[in-house]
Amino acid sequence: MGHIEPVIRGERWKQLSFTVPMGDKEYFLSNHGRVKSVDINTGKERLLKIYYDRLQYARVNLKIKGKDISFYIHKKMAEYFLNPIEGKENIIHKNLNRKDNRKSNLKLVSDKQRRAYVKERAEKFDFKQKVGGGNYKLTEANVAMIKKYLKTGKTRKKMLAKRFGVTHTQINRIESGENWGHVKPAK
Asked: Which listed CATH number (1.10.10, 1.20.58, 1.25.40, 3.10.150) goes with 132-187?
């Protein structure tokens, strides 16, 4: 099996397992938070690209036998490298950097410890807490109109989403009552 450059001193790899058949590749996670694939036939190794969500959590996307699989690296690190502790199911990054997924930077903590961590991180990065609800794109009057249009069935959801500056998913949630369930359709 060929080695991936650059080799990191003390790096250890553990094979990942998934619920779907792997096909001709095996996937490995290192104690430094890196992920690689190894071709079973050739032994060729490839470091996988890491993506970051809007909250800066690192994730990897795989396509295995036509199925899309993605996972957060810190969660797989906890599963494969940290020992589970009763009452400590939350994972934190000790140095507050969510991009640093080395085993030495991750820790399992209780809910109370996680809340303290969130507060510390908010102070470090100067996050402001929202007061009095969120900044909604829609008003109750907008939602009442959307529900009216949905009730008549004459306007396509895609057009409603564009008109009110929200996503198609938001329109579906309004229709199902998951969001804005308390608002009645306009007359």
From this structure: 1.10.10
CB neighbour list of residue 175: distance below 8 Å, 6 or more residues apart = 147, 150, 157
pLDDT, one tens digit per residue, over 50-104 is 999 988 999 999 888 778 889 999 999 999 999 888 889 999 999 999 999 999 9
Residue 101's closest CA among 86, 80, 129, 128?
A: 80
CB distance 179 to 173 below 8 Å: yes
95: left (phi over 0), alpha (psi -120 to 50) or beta: alpha
Q: Which residue in 84, 83, 87, 78 sits closest to 110, CA to CA?
A: 87
Q: Tell me how far apart the alpha carbons of residues 82 and 14 are, in angstroms, rounded to a whole number.
A: 12
User: What does the alpha-carbon distance between residue 143 and residue 160 come to, in Å, rounded to a whole number?
Assistant: 11
Sorted by where each begins, the domain ranges of the chain are 13-75, 82-124, 132-187
